[in-house]
Amino acid sequence: MRKLTYLIATSIDGFIGDESGEAEFFTKYVDEEYLAYGFEELPEMMPTFARQHFGIDDRPNQRFDAVLMGRGTYDVGLPQGVTSPYGHLKQYVVSRSMEKAPAPEVELVSGDMVAKVRELKRQDGLGIWLCGGADLAGQLVDEIDELVIKTYPCLLGSGMPLATAGFAIREFALESVKSFSGGNVITTYSRQR
């Protein structure tokens, strides 16, 4: 059975962006060492245009072959004409208001997201990457099998949280911690059921 992995960037104090979800400022903390690790260990998390730019577009997907993103996450690239941000993955965009996907490679999803994720998990393939945002993560919090938290060395004080789920204790076990000389840390947790 496929896993749903919430792989997300966050500040030390747990915010994935400002109040609107903008998170471009995290790129300030990406250095050569961190990029090299991403190229080697998580090449599928790079948008297709970035994979082409860095010459890694021929690298096979290692962990994921599908990406699930909320409308706000998807909309980030639209002003630059990026309608298929992760063309190397099967792309699902959750939206109640979009009537037609801007690209044929993008499948719009609405309705019962838990049922949709359970359906995707039953299909053959690699894992499913929950790319963001906080509302979608909140809706799917009980379906998340793994957390991969990319923590950047900054405090924001306020902003968009990791997930907008109601209070409940949801236990995860620490699987690994990878730290980088620039202060970034990637922490992986698996769901304890």
From TrEMBL:
Q: Which Pfam families match?
A: RibD_C (PF01872)
Gene3D superfamilies, alphabetically? Dihydrofolate Reductase, subunit A (3.40.430.10)
- Stretches assigned to the Bacterial bifunctional deaminase-reductase C-terminal domain: 3-185
Q: What is this protein called?
A: Dihydrofolate reductase family protein
